[in-house]
Amino acid sequence: MKALILAGGRGERMGKITENLPKPMLKIGGLPILERQINLLKRYGFKEVIILTHYLSKIIERHFKNRVTYFQEKVPLGTVGGIKELEDKLKKDFIVLYGDKMLDIDINRLVKFHKDKKSACTLVLHPTSHVEDSDLVEIDKNKRIIAFHPKPHPPNRYFRNLVNAAVYVMSPKILKYIKRGVKADFGKDIFPKIVKKERLYGYITAEYIKDVGTPARLLETRRDYQKGKIGRLNRKNKRRAVFLDRDGTINEHIDDLADSKDFRLLPSSAKAIRKINDSEFLAIVITNQPAVAKKFLAVKTLDQIHKKMETLLAEDGAKLDAIYYCPHHPDYDLKCSCRKPEIGLIKKAEKEFNIDLKKSYFIGDSWRDILCARNAGLTSIGVKTGRGCRGIDVRPDYLFSDLLRAVNSTIK
User: 198 — phi, psi (to 5°)?
Assistant: First the structure.
């Protein structure tokens, strides 16, 4: 599989920093971002890398010499046009990276996902802490992309917090939708027009991908590199997680909540989850939703409730890495492995995110949460909100007044 890196941009948001240097040549830990991308691709077996250049292209060519192939755009053509010019060389699926992205991801797993889904184009997606200025992507339960929601977002609408990370695995069939010589952008001009025509899928990851497009983000990325964070977040390394109950822990408890209008975050929940985000712990919700089995709650409405939760958290700079729910109830369904205190959803998250359960936590307000934690080998933390862990024989390892105090005492 060939790899294309788009490195022709001017980097105007960087100001004087890129007056005499292409943005992809800015250094992280002593090496240009482009070099770190190429090293990542080589690590995963990519033998042919093509860099699409324009602004100060000679600097890139002098640095890499004949280690890669180059295509120089005569005029800037956005994220699309230059690739169209290479159409005759792209007969098989290929990967596309943006040259200003610092990333360390398991590319083999991404490519396998793409092939397993028989996808025409797979977009890497991740949640963001600044959803208000981000273009959002909507997927269905099978992770097929069904809609794009560009900024600015309409008021009183709720969306999943999933953002296009600008890493693609693409079939050559996508190239037929690009006009030669016309400046365009994949995320804004191409994907929204073909989402109903082609099989586009979203690959969700919690690995490190950051746009180094402003001086502040460049500084943050350099700090992350110095701390070793970038490499540690690759999926090959086990991650720690804070598993969170939903009702009574994150939001006000309402029996059989069945309307997004009634969903309200508890005070300081967003601040608590934001602290989890700032650490290297994952923030993952595990919730029983038996109202689905009882026919009080449609799955579509449950999705809307979760979209509201993600939107409200994102408005306060917080994000969830995943939400897992059990729609069953023993009086209405056969016995399942996903209803807490069973650990089916914990095990699913463990597999998808490569989680170290022994170093992870579960925070909840009921005996089901505490027993689920114990069954999964997690440290259990109770909160006094919601059901408050009252009247139960199963005691948590720790008990705090609310989610924020629980997180503050857990994550140092």
Answer: -125, 160
The residue range of the domain holding 380 is 240-410
Same domain, yes or no: 289 and 205: no
DSSP 137-182: EEE-TT-BEEEEEPSSPPTT------EEEEEEEE-GGGGGGSPTT-
The CB density around residue 260, as the number of other CB atoms within 10 Å, is 16
Give the helix, strand, coil percentages of the chain, each rounded to 5: 35, 25, 40
Same domain? For 41 and 140 the reply is yes
Please report the pLDDT score of residue 195 as a whole number.
97
CA 136 to chain centre: 11
Instruction: Give the total number of structural domains in the chain.
Output: 2
**pTM value?**
0.94
Calpha distance 139→203 (Å, rounded): 10
Q: Which residues are the active-site residues?
A: 245, 247
Structure confidence by residue, pLDDT tens digits, 30-76:
999 999 999 999 999 999 999 999 999 999 999 999 999 999 988 87
